[in-house]
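Each record in this resource describes a single protein on a pair of labelled lines. With that in mind, the following record should read easily:

===
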Amino acid sequence: MQDLKYSIVGANSPLLEVTLSPDEALIAEAGAMLYTEEGIQFEAKLGDGSEQSGFFDELLSAGKRLFTGESLFLTHFTNMDSKPRKIAFGSPYPGTILPISLSNLPERTAIFQREVFLCATHGTKISVEITPKIGAGVLGGEGFILQKLEGEGTAFIHAGGSVIEKELEDEELLVDTGAIVGFSPSISYDIERVTDLRSSIFSGEGLFLAKLQGTGKVWLQSMPFRSLVGKVAQKMSEG
């Protein structure tokens, strides 16, 4: 697979501009596209178009996406022109657009919070990942349904604020549940209750923290979307 040509423009509310060669394609969440040049055709489809997926697999995957609150369809963009054409995707809120080279990851797989996926090269498999301990997702307030990306190409995710990438070596990391963007499948995910109730209440850190443990990559965001919404709501109420 040839390297994907792209540029990320802007800092606070960036946009992703991708140059598609003839017959090259991308898949994206519905409504993510900002603009496209003439010659790029787009079509809403049930599946992600990965080679491993048959019709019934795509139908099942679409049903799972609907169950998780995501759009039933993914949009497929293909350059039907004889020369390179550009397409751009906008960030849904202030933050960072981060390219993820799936082929460079262990198992060529990563697990993300479902709302962070922006787009990916055609052939990327997108599936639902259920948190093994359902209570972890419910108590953490982020939901127990995650999104798994698998493949050889490039995926783009959007996170709030700045993104921090950490490499764990048989280590444990305690994190605010909203700060998690994604992690390697080799990392276990659980929720740990803060034992000191008084410290939890008066420190403002909450009753629960996410525990990430193992060996692999972890991506964190400095401004979770729920925090951004909370700050905006607070300012509006004060005004």
